[in-house]
Amino acid sequence: xxxxxxxxxxxxxxxxxxxxxxxxxxxxxxxxIGGGCSCGVSKDDFFTQKAFIQQNNxxxxxxxxxxxxxxxxxxxxxDFLELLLKGDEICAVGETGFDLxxxxxxxxxxxxxxxxxxxxELAEKYNKPVVIHCRKGLKFVVADSKKLCRLPAVVFHGxxxxxxxxxxxxxxxxxxxxxxxxxxxxKMTPREYVKQVLSRYDI
Length: 203
Hints:
Blueprint: H1 23-32, E1 36-40, H2 43-55, E2 62-66, H3 78-86, E3 92-99, H4 103-106, H5 109-125, E4 130-135, H6 138-143, H7 145-148, E5 154-159, H8 163-172, E6 176-180, H9 190-197
Parallel strand pairs: 1-2, 2-3, 3-4, 4-5, 5-6
Helix pairs in contact: 3-5, 8-9
């Protein structure tokens, strides 16, 4: 299984398929990192990232994920997702999750739920971790904590919640991992935040 403890995932996408002029910059950057997982959000995005990884000999550093992002809610991608899972071409399912940050996204809640449920079923079927994108929809994730506990790992991608929310998720889903979306308005450093999250544990 993918060793998440040795990776980072700071809202990590290699590049947009509409802007590939920075490929060389990305290659130089990727050669220096310890490792990471990059989330594909469309077929074109996935194949562009796959080619980039192969051409730059980065397969030992960058692992591919694929999921139906809540921004798009394109259920037609489910078959392609399962095809990738059957071929063991991805290390995790994601990004999946909920985004209710804007009125337009709130209108997509029902299709977000449908895509979420389908992806959880596939992740369990193929014993893969999930990478979760969540804004203003944490209660829907928590409602499925029992399902998430059946997966090998749950990565909260660009997590923007507070210390108490992170602790709650770790309590309900012990195999949780976090990458943090730190904002300038936050009153603590990333190190301080992580220290507080872990303060209730004997670490």
